[in-house]
Amino acid sequence: MGWIAKKLGRHRSQSFVNDMMNVADGVITEQCNQYSSCSLYKAFEGKKAIFNAEYNLTTAPVLCE
């Protein structure tokens, strides 16, 4: 059974997100593009699952870093 962490970026702490990388099997984020917090999840990229939900999208494309 896996463990998925949710909304780690709300703490705005890179060290906290990095620590959770060691124990979580993935992460669920909400609105990291809108709040410019996607870069917090760099440690997860290419290693573990990242699921992001964006609300109130504009018609412009959303780019994940």
Question: What's the helix and strand layout?
Answer:
Blueprint: E1 4-6, H1 14-21, E2 26-30, E3 49-53
Parallel strand pairs: 1-2, 2-3
Description of the structure:
The protein is 12% helix and 20% strand. It contains 1 helix and 3 strands. The protein has a 3-stranded parallel β-sheet, with no helix packed on it. β1, α1 and β2 form a beta-alpha-beta unit.
The radius of gyration computed from the alpha-carbon positions, rounded to a whole number of angstroms, is: 12 Å
For the biggest β-sheet, the strand order reads 1-2-3
Uncertain regions: pLDDT < 50 for 5+ in a row? none
The structural class is alpha/beta
How many E-type strands? 3
C-alpha end-to-end distance:
28 Å
User: Can you give the helix content as a percent range?
Assistant: 10-25%
Give the overall form. Answer: globular
* DSSP summary: helix tally: 1
List keywords for this structure.
single chain, 65 residues, alpha/beta, three-stranded parallel beta sheet, 1 helix, 3 strands
TL;DR of this structure?
With 65 residues, the chain is α/β, with parallel strands linked by helices. The protein is built from 1 helix and 3 strands, in the order βαββ.
